[in-house]
């Protein structure tokens, strides 16, 4: 196989060494890609169950018991050189999360080369207790970079929910986000050009935007800091920072496992907040909800959002009783199985269903969806 056969190169990378009798061995950059993929995915225990041994010669996915020719630093340099960025991010994520190659986040040489990402941030949160002070300081800089990017993205989405609702009154103030598409089409139908099959817009129309009349509300965010909830912990911290100081809203942030830690004082500094989070351990949702209920001043002007996988390690009956009491006094209770950019939950449906039965609203949301929900409640 030669570099002039990119299709064969790709099939060889997909199918592995057994395909070589049809494709020939990988050469050039193809051999480097194959070695990098073998270094990582050769760790898959499924290979051992199929009798394929890890650690063969470069470019091979089977045979050999010798040590890998790549260090983690070498591997990172190779994947950055050989693969596009989106593939690099996937490989790094699998290295940390699937194969738990911890030196990716505990070795300063490796940290200096790795691409900052949310996957890296989750890994830092899970392994920061393993880091010496120098490595931790370097990891913190990476955390800051990822959080800055997240804040820049989420702040606009979250705060836009609180800028007012569109009214049906026309406005002379021309702003793109207030563009009234339907009224514009109706007003310009006389300018339809049949030969070009288009409408010439001479009179664009815009909505006016009215500011909501906002009463003071409380938002109590209770976030499960067990290991499986790392993504939700990150997005909850950033969301709380974006919501902080908005008119008409007082935000609390509480993290819990079997203990409860009120992090409200650190909401304005999500990096500091996340560096205090201790992922892992058991889960006592009932204790956290009881604490959150104690923070509520005005039940009918409060939202308690419990962000958890609902795998209760505490008293499930007490959890149900507390949620029922909150709902009966007029508090909005949200049970969120995920709060992140994907909103793909993995949760205990039995406990979630019991909470829904007593009046909690259960589901999964992105941060912007949560902000819209809160804004709509406040604006009623």
Distance between the termini: 67 Å
Percentage of residues in DSSP E strands: 5-15%
CATH class category label of the largest domain: Alpha Beta
- For the report, how would you describe the main beta sheet? 6 strands, mixed
CATH topology of the largest domain: the name is: Rossmann fold
Q: Report the strand count.
A: 10
Q: Give the % helix.
A: 40-55%
Decide which structural class fits the backbone.
alpha/beta
CATH homologous superfamily of the largest domain - what is it?
Answer: von Willebrand factor, type A domain
Low-confidence stretches: 53-68
Number of helices: 17
Please give the radius of gyration in angstroms: 26 Å
For the residues shown, what is the average pLDDT? 81
| Strand line-up of the largest beta sheet | 7-6-5-8-9-10
Shape: globular
Overall number of domains: 3
CATH architecture of the largest domain: 3-Layer(aba) Sandwich
SSE order, one letter for each helix or strand = HHHHHHHHHHEHEEEEHEEHHEHEHEH
Summary of the model, kept short:
The chain has 380 residues and is of the alpha/beta class. It is 47% helix and 14% strand.
How would you sum up this structure, described in words?
The protein has helices at residues 6-15, 20-23, 29-41, 45-49, 72-82, 85-98, 103-106, 108-113, 118-127, 133-160, 181-187, 230-243, 270-276, 285-295, 316-328, 349-357, 367-379, and strands at residues 165-170, 192-193, 198-199, 207-210, 217-224, 249-256, 260-262, 302-307, 332-339, 361-365. It has 380 residues and is α/β, with parallel strands linked by helices. It is globular, with a radius of gyration of 26 Å. Residues 216-378 form the VWFA domain.
């Amino acid at each position: 196989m030669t570099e002039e056969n990119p299709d064969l190169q790709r099939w060889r990378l997909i199918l592995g060494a057994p395909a070589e009798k049809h494709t020939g061995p990988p050469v050039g950059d193809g051999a480097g890609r194959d070695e990098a993929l073998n270094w990582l995915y050769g760790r898959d225990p499924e290979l051992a169950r199929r009798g394929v041994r890890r650690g063969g010669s470069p470019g091979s996915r089977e045979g050999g018991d010798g040590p890998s020719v790549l260090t983690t630093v070498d591997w990172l340099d190779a994947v950055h050189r050989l693969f596009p960025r989106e593939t690099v991010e996937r490989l790094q994520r699998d290295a940390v999360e699937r194969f738990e190659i911890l030196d990716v986040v505990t070795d300063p040489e490796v940290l200096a080369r790795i691409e900052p990402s949310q996957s890296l941030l989750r890994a830092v949160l899970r392994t920061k207790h393993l880091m010496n002070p120098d490595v931790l300081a370097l990891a913190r800089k990476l955390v800051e970079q990822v959080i800055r990017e997240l804040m820049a993205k989420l702040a606009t989405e979250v705060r836009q929910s609180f800028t007012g609702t569109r009214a049906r009154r026309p406005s002379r103030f021309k702003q793109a986000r207030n563009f009234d598409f339907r009224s514009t089409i109706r007003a310009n139908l006389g300018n339809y050009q049949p030969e070009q099959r288009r409408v010439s817009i001479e009179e664009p129309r815009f909505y006016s935007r009215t500011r909501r009349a906002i009463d003071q509300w409380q938002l109590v965010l209770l976030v499960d800091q067990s290991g499986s909830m790392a993504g939700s912990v990150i997005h909850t911290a950033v969301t709380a920072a974006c919501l902080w100081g908005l008119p008409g809203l007082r935000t609390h942030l509480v993290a819990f496992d079997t203990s409860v830690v009120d992090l409200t004082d650190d909401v304005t500094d999500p990096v500091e907040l996340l560096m205090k989070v201790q992922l892992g351990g058991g889960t006592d949702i009932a204790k956290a909800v009881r604490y959150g209920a104690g923070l509520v001043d005005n039940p009918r002007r409060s939202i308690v959002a419990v962000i958890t996988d609902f795998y209760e390690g505490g008293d499930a009956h007490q959890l149900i009783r507390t949620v029922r009491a909150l709902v009966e006094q007029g508090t909005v209770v949200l049970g969120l199985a995920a709060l992140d950019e994907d909103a793909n939950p993995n949760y205990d449906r039995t406990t979630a269903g019991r909470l829904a039965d007593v009046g909690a609203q259960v589901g999964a949301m992105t941060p912007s969806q949560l902000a819209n929900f809160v804004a709509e409640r406040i604006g009623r």
